[in-house]
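Exercise 7 asks you to align residues with tokens for two separate proteins.
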Amino acid sequence: MKVGDILRKKTARVATVRMNETVGVAAQLMRASNISALVVKDVVRTEGNTAVGMFTERDVVRAIAEHGAAGVNLKVSQLISVQQLVSCSSADTLEHARHLMNRNHIRHLPVIDNYSLIGVVSVRDISTAFDEASAVAKPAVDAA
């Protein structure tokens, strides 16, 4: 099974936040969309709008734990690591996506095709896909 198979079952909208937004705004966006992670975008002169990282509930907790109530006023850019965005493509296998998540200790993986952000897959998405695949593969046992 491929990452693209999961994306076809999900909503097409990808929740994003700009690097210069505050932690408070990012938290409100996550709450309004009932999600636990946002793709962080930055405007790059040569490339336009580009994905540079992920901002998660853990980042919100860290901001408040380290800075108290003032943590909500920090910029998203102050809390994310932008050295190397870990991502996959829609053609990658679920096994590869799971491996990237495990190796990098992350729970959300942006999906980028031809330099464009097309979606995000989560550990839960992959786990559900594996569960559904194994349920289809195993024949039901009849109760006698």
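Second protein for Exercise 7:
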Amino acid sequence: MAKTLPDKPLRPATLLVRGGQNRTELGETSEALFLTSGFVYDDAKQAEDTFLGTAQHFQYSRFGNPTVQALENKLALLEGAEACRATATGMAAVHAAMLSHLKTGDRVVASRALFGSCYWIVSTLLPRYGIETVFVDGSDLAGWQDALSVQTAMVLLETPSNPMLEIVDLRAVCDLAHQAGALVVVDNVFATPLLQRPLEFGADIVVYSATKHFDGQGRVLGGAVLGTKKWVEEVLQPFIRNTGPAISPFNAWVILKGLETLHLRVPAMCASAQRVAEFLDGRPEVERVHYPTLPSHPQRELAMRQMSAGGTVVTFDVAGGKDATFAFLDALRLVDVSNNLGDSKSLVTHPATTTHMRVGAEERARLGITDGSVRLSIGLEDVEDLLEDLAAALDAAGRAQPRQAAE
């Protein structure tokens, strides 16, 4: 017979290894992988009762699956949430969290510093359905107060933001949002639940791209939405059930395996990120470095009130514009150019020409994203090797700057 977990609060590392486990009668050690589209019933009455909701039985993997349920249970325990639903991608999680709740005539207030696809949903998709949208500079509390002075249905924000690592005061914004009647949705991808738990600051919903740190090894796509049991079951679940952003059970199983080492990977990556940020801050080829724990970060104090570490991403501006920045990127030999993050391999991207290309030059300027901005996701390599690779690439960028000036 399967053991039950101790009836006491367990620490994150234990939850990541043991939480959410639901062994079958076969007593498997690892979570079972249920690659099945549907499920059979003992008789016609059980099928009827299952569809009526008076009997608990898996129906169809678009609605629910034992492997997916194990992932959802583990993530809910880790986040301190009542319920979770996994989705096919992180963007499916954002889309489902918003569109399941909103309707024509509603109003949404969002932080301006959003990932490119999130920005598109708020700026382009929602207005097509007659939903009013307002953007606010995330660090401007007066701006939030003004935007939330009228009735609002939802607030969407990222903190730290992608890619410039802007910090939003979660407690203050959640209080203002609730006074306006809004549900607060927080994209917590950069922090992970190990560094920041938005629900403890008043957020209602937390969304993740499980593709990032949860898998952490660049293998599969996935997403998650977490919130209260009532909202998940009554609002989110009907939307997911009928629109179909279901995660593959195989992807859910891979992410389950990735989560078992999250508590080992994220602190190691954060420690290396701190070293890299400090190194970059002293290089003449770098105009500015964005990292929440650096003394130069304008919201360092706030970041440290909300987060237990600075995160795995460092963003910085290479002097000399696009040509020097591309010279830097092309000279890297250890760090891969890729638009993913949270991977065990260090990855780097140029937001102006990749993740934030389609927000437009004017909006990028407002966000502080320049042609020299670089987003660096720190992996698990030896930090000394990373520093040597970055130093050589910055030397190349420095050599490119005089040529650009002469031209």
